[in-house]
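Write out the bound-state structure for adenosine-5-diphosphoribose.
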Amino acid sequence: MWITRSQAPAADTARAIAAAAGVLRAAQRVVVATGAGMSCESGIPTFRDALTGLWARYDPEELATEAAFRRHPARVFGWYAWRRRLVRAATPHPGYHALVALERFVPELVIVTQNVDGLHRRAGSRRVVELHGSLDRFSCVDARHPFPAAAAPEPAEDTECEPPSCPECGAPVRPDVVWFGETLPAQATAEAWDLAASCQAMLVVGTSGLVQPAAQLPFIARDGGATVIEVNPDPTDVSAAAHIICRGPAGVVLPALVAALTEGAAT
Ligand code: APR
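---
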């Protein structure tokens, strides 16, 4: 679903934002867990929305598994090249800049994202843990030897595209994202789980809470004693774990949250 920005949050959302600002003001360590909804207002389609045009006839399982890549490398590599172009044409919306500004109010703020678009880093967030990898990194499919992004082919059109070969072993090169059936990167996962268990507040933005294991993070934070704050226009599976729910799009709620913190700091 795509939600466009409106001028100001609704009254009950404004009350929730004020409560969230109070929690964040008192927290030492804050985790911001983000999902596909974080990028909607930057015009980046969610995984399923990205199955349009040339790609509409495929299931995600035909484009985002190792087996699919080995069967149809040019198809899968071409789809990711197209998604990379969409991301490059997008710019971070005000919610991203609000998360950068939030670093001024919190001693330790870490973003843990399921997104592979790199928008948090582009906006300037300093600590970002990428749970599902990145569209901007590549490695070979057999040994996972790293491959330089600058050498990855980029077709100008929405088309299939043969992947390059690994200079070390000759295996086809794939995007460094987590595909269906694959485990998450060990270091990022360990870091995210530790942070969730030890933070005082977790902001959960734009995730349905349906994709495991990332969906566990709000529940781990809650079990560890953190206050869980959800930012989402719609109810989700995360809502059950949330102490404070800010119903609204990230591009409205997050700037309003920073404004509330700024006002609090000035009084
Ligand atoms: N602001 C905040 N949230 C929004 C907005 C918005 N403007 N627009 C939509 N949302 C919410 C939706 O209500 C939904 O709850 O974003 C959520 C998106 O849910 P999913 O598409 O399921 O995204 P996510 O939870 O990140 O799971 C997707 O699965 O396809 C794999 O690896 C891929 O990381 C991806 C994950």
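---
The pocket of adenosine-5-diphosphoribose is lined by residues 1, 3, 35-37, 40-41, 46-47, 114, 132, 205-208, 210-211, 231-234, 236, 249-250 (CB under 6 Å).
Residues 196 and 221 are 5 Å apart (CA to CA).
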